[in-house]
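Lab notebook, bench 4. The sequencing result for the construct came back, and we need a structural model before the next group meeting so we can plan mutations. Quick request posted to the team channel:

Model the 3D structure of this chain.
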Amino acid sequence: MAKIKAEPFAFPVKHDELALIVIDMQRDFAEPGGFGASLGNDVSRITRIVPDVKRLIQGFRNAGLPVIHTMECHRPDLSDLPPAKRDRGNPSLRIGDEGPMGRILISGEPGTAILPELAPVKGEVIIEKPGKGAFYATELGTVLQQKGIKQLVFAGVTTEVCVQTTMREANDRGYECLLAEEATESYFPEFKAAAIAMIRAQGAIVGWTAHVDDILESIAHA
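Done. Here's the predicted structure in token form:
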């Protein structure tokens, strides 16, 4: 069995059961004027991982392995947005409000779109998720089952929120999870470090972490 160099120990990879999930690389989280910036965050921390995320996506495409993209967003009528979620954050600019890139985190709006450099290509699955975890109220589980996927490589943002939440959901569903360290980021470096430590603690209790180059080297020989 092939292995990817990882922490806390090598990840035993099965290439025919492997997929990449790119979490929420959206304009609203990464560009000036978006929702992330409105909360006072330094969005340049997100944009700097774009080259590594792009390399990872291209590596999976070249290997003929599935790439799945997620977007956190809600219906235009806000029927899937709990008041408890809407009421948090910046009181002057909330989910559903009109922002510089359209209504914030609403399906179909410009700011909700994935960054152009990382845009899905024809045939790649896009999951619109109303929650932090990508399994909640989505078809992700069905998609993975249909494709015979049992191992997941994760990239995207933010490490400690939507990425870690989805990894924990996947772990509970029996998937083996690997986080690409340079292809994930947080607005807060200490949060990213803490999330990585929690994920791979106690013998990969949630999953493994690995460097992008090591992942790409492995899938190049898939």
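The longest strand covers residues 176-185.
Will bring this to the meeting.
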